[in-house]
């Protein structure tokens, strides 16, 4: 049986020693004068460089191959670092592109402190509508601050995985078409852009009673605030 290379035992020993130091110094918060998080990052980076270097040496490549490999790894590390540094800006760009390509998609913006705002546009009907994600499924909803609960049409309820046939339509509700009845249900998640809540109670309107699903105050009331700016409604997480 082939024995593991000596370098593997050295790497494992260093990793074990580093982990033990972190465990013993957990309460102190520092190891060799460094914060435990910094020490862990240095330990991980050092082991990664050692393994990569050993692989290059063991394969005995030419000088040109070594240079290309080092350049490739540096490019990968630079790309990962840049992506992490500008992660919020990249999320904003992706959200803007999606909002432009998919009608009704909300525009999410995250600032440097991690605060999220979502902009919803007013449609030709004069209402604020957005493409929400309920239980991970797309649902076009109208924002209705006059509705205490989020109400789904039967079709939308079925599309997010609810067993509509098992629902009990006994809850009286008022709609633009008058008083009707709805059934109580629950959504595991409701998301508008990058703002997500759940689980939340919802209602399902009886067939034919509602033409479009409504996003009510049981979602809107969880926000830190929202305001209307012309044809836009801005939601703040």
TrEMBL record:
Asked if the record carries the keyword Transcription, the reply is no
- Any single Pfam family the record assigns to this protein: Asp_protease_2
List UniProt keywords, sorted A-Z.
Hydrolase, Membrane, Protease, Transmembrane, Transmembrane helix
Q: Write out the GO MF terms.
A: aspartic-type endopeptidase activity
Q: Which domain of life is it from?
A: Bacteria
The record's listing under InterPro entries reads:
Aspartic_peptidase_AS (IPR001969), Clan_AA_Asp_peptidase_C (IPR011969), Peptidase_aspartic_dom_sf (IPR021109), Retropepsin-like_bacterial (IPR034122)
Which biological process terms from the Gene Ontology are attached to this UniProt entry? proteolysis
Residue ranges of the TM segments: 7-26, 38-58, 70-86
Task: List the protein's name.
Answer: Aspartic protease
| Species | Tianweitania populi
